Amino acid sequence: MTAEAKALEPGGLVTIVDAGGEALGVGTFNPHSLIAVRCLDRDPAQAVDAAFLAGRLRRALELRDRLFDRPFYRLVHAEADGLPGLVIDRYGDVIALQANTAGMEALLPQILSVLEDLLHPTAVVLKNDSPVRRLEGLDLYDRVERGQLEGPVRLEENGAVFFADLVTGQKTGWFFDQRDNRAAVAALARDRSVIDFYSYAGGFAIQAAKAGATQVTAVDRSEGSLALAARSAEENGVRVDCVRADAFAEMERLAAAGSRFGVVVADPPAFVKSKKDMAAGAKGYRKMTRLAGGLVEAGGFLLVASCSHHMDPASFAEEVRHGLSQAGRTGRILRQSGAGAAHPLHPWLPESAYLKALLLQLD
Ligand code: SAH
Predict the structure, then answer these.
(1) Each residue of 196-208: pLDDT tens digit?
(2) Tens-digit pLDDT profile for residues 97-146
(3) DSSP readout, 325-358?
(4) How would residue 2 be classed by pLDDT, with cut points 50, 70 and 90?
(5) In order of start, what are the domains of the chain with their CATH numbers?
(6) Which of 10, 65, 89, 190 stands 20 to 30 A from 249 (CA)?
(7) Atom of ligand 1 nearest to the CA of 265
(8) Cβ(314)–Cβ(345) below 8 Å
């Protein structure tokens, strides 16, 4: 990087020029980040102003309005929506926003005023607490930026009602990416017992219960998450037994007790947080599949997932099949999937497909 480039303000707008001097586009620049340039538009003459940002947000909103009949979804998914570094989740009139680059941090005031005009939110929460911000030289903070938020927000997904805590909850409060996988599990749950490990606010558990499962257990080590799951279960008029425990310890305990379930879900936090965790994280997925698979009754179903960016789908599938073999189980893959359509992918960034899920039937 030239001294001139190094001296540029982090997050400022630049024209991207190739070695031959041809202008390639406009983007934001951060001399302190490994990904120094984030392209916003391929037209170098494009002004990055309120009208431009409004255009991007409107396009993202129109797509979600077409995909979903209720206003609860990921509204902006970074590069794929033409806004690299920006994530926005929508809970009706409440917005949770994450700016993960210096460029987006600098554009935040304009983005907030465009959102105000577009959606008239009653509250906007900034969830700027992702460790990736450190790589951009940004500090970490969480705050209610506009309006007021009293307690957890209500959302709807696949016909069920949930509560998400945007202030103390994980990420932006709800994992909208698992929407389709939750529907796929619910469709298999009728007349079966279900156990949902790493349940968080009960996404899989409650949808399975609504779909007619005979008995549903949600396991998580966080009391706060289980409290939200319990509240949501009540709101939906279903019963979910909430168990506060370490997932692996509970899987081992249940196996020792001879318990079996018709459907087992294991959707944990990322085991591979950075490239150096790869070997240990891969082992974790293998162990998780061995233990969770061992709890599935003959003919029952298993959903295992990984949200580790650094683990590609083929490596995840490999750990899963070894885990099943170690459990002495055979079966068939019914569905290999990722995040739902509210999390689109940029065609040139296949590596941003972080979510992997495998749904299997076991013999
Ligand atoms: N499956 C959830 C999302 C999981 S997020 C959904 O569909 O929304 C990961 C969850 O795992 C968090 O709620 C966290 O509290 C929980 N967790 C993390 N480590 C755990 C452990 N060792 N045992 C049990 N739960 C754990």
Answers:
(1) 999 999 999 999 9
(2) 999 999 999 999 999 999 999 999 999 999 999 998 999 999 999 999 99
(3) HHTT--EEEEEEE-S-TTS---TT-GGG---EEE
(4) confident
(5) 3-41 (no CATH), 50-147 (3.30.750.80), 154-362 (3.40.50.150)
(6) 190
(7) 1
(8) no
Cα(269) to centroid(ligand 1), Å: 6
Q: Whose CA is nearest to atom 16 of ligand 1?
A: 198
Q: For the range 248-256, what are the long-range contacts, defined as Cβ-Cβ under 8 Å and sequence gap of 24 or more?
A: 248/287, 248/288, 248/291, 250/197, 250/219, 251/197, 251/291, 251/292, 251/294, 251/295, 252/291, 254/195, 254/295, 255/291, 255/294, 255/295
Q: Residues 19-25: what's their mean pLDDT?
A: 95
The catalytic site residues sit at: 307
Query: Dihedral sign, CA of 132, 136, 137, 138?
Result: negative
The string of pLDDT tens digits covering residues 342-363 is 999 999 998 889 999 999 999 9
Within 13 Å and on the Cβ side, how many CA atoms surround 293? 29
- Residue 39's SS3 state is strand
- Helix boundaries (H) for 75-222: 102-119, 132-135, 179-186, 203-210
Q: Tell how far the Cα of 198 is from the centroid of ligand 1, in angstroms.
A: 3
> pTM of the full predicted structure?
0.96
> Could you tell me the CA-to-CA distances from 64 to 57, 89, 352 in Å, in that order?
11, 11, 19
Q: Tell me the CA–centroid distance for residue 145 and ligand 1, in Å.
A: 27
What is the C-alpha separation between 101 and 99, in angstroms, rounded?
6
Which phi and psi (to 5°) does residue 352 adopt? -85, 0
Distance 206 CA to ligand 1 centre (A): 15
The DSSP letter of residue 75 is E
Residue nearest to atom 15 of ligand 1 (CA): 222
Beta bridge pairs of residue 96: 89, 125
Pocket test of ligand 1: the residue of 74, 216, 221 to mutate, having most ligand atoms within 8 Å of its CB, is 221
To test the ligand 1 pocket, which listed residue (198, 206, 243) has its Cβ within 8 A of the most ligand atoms? Answer: 198
**Smallest CA separation from ligand 1 atom 22, residue:** 246
CA dihedral 253, 254, 256, 258 (to 10 degrees): 170
